What we know:
By secondary structure, the chain is mainly alpha-helical. The protein has ten helices and two strands, in the order H-E-E-H-H-H-H-H-H-H-H-H.
Amino acid sequence: MVSDVVSNISINKYAIKWNKVFQEHIIQCVGLHIKDNNMSQSRLQQDEDRRSCWVCFATEEDDRAAAWVRPCRCRGTTKWVHQTCLQRWVDEKQKGNSTVKVACPQCNTEYLILFPKLGPVVYVMDIIDKVIFKMCPFVAGGIFIGTVYWTMVTYGAVTVMQVLGHKEGLNVMEQADPLFLLIGLPTIPLMLVLGKMVRWEDYVLRVWRKHSAKLPLINYLFPDEHSRLSRVPADTVTLTDPISATRVLCGALIMPTIATIVGKLMFGLVQSNFQRTLLGGFAFIAIKGVMKIYYKQQQYLRQANRVICDYEDPQSPTPPGNDTPTQQ
């Protein structure tokens, strides 16, 4: 019993001794770790304090008299830049316009640029310059719209005199209300352009292709119209060309002149200038439409009867009697 007690006491002394040794070792390790952290933090602080310009890559040791600035949220060596280098970089970005905002290319922080105070005269001139800069687009747009409007008014007046005759046209415009003229004359070229955009020939051509085989008169007048079709082209083939703005504009504005000329050539016996021009316009539209329908229908037949030829090796001789259609 006494021996057991003695052994327990010795074991406890031994455990206490090793606990003290282990605690001292842990304290040493923690101290070394804290020391390393302090050293790494001090190195980082030294690296951050070390100034290096991100524009010219010069350090503080290269030019100790240069002025430095920290204009953004960047950290580390990229947060410092020479004042002169940054000024030159800002000049390249603004390109002479001091109102342009410039930001850091790394963190996108907008630079706080402080200008010296302006004198009263320069301040007023600066405000006037800004107002003119903001008003110029609106003034230019108003001048452009006004120019187009009065051009349309002039064209409408010339068209009225051309269609009705010079004297009769002047009398009609003199007797009309000025407000009516200011509103009605610009609508003449506008209605001509809108009318030119209506492709009535396409609708007639579509009806022709769909119902011409069912009409006996069409079969009698054009007996070979449908017998020549070897296939029906796909619906993806467009009936007409895309609308060209310049072509529509030119065709619409020259329409009154063409109507007047055709009216004088075909309906010279009609005494009224207005009726003669109107008949000439309808006749020109009808003749042009028929010719266009005929042209489009011939193109349709050409597409329907096309043949894709076999590939022939240029080095191999052509077999006799193997005639191929003309390639497009």
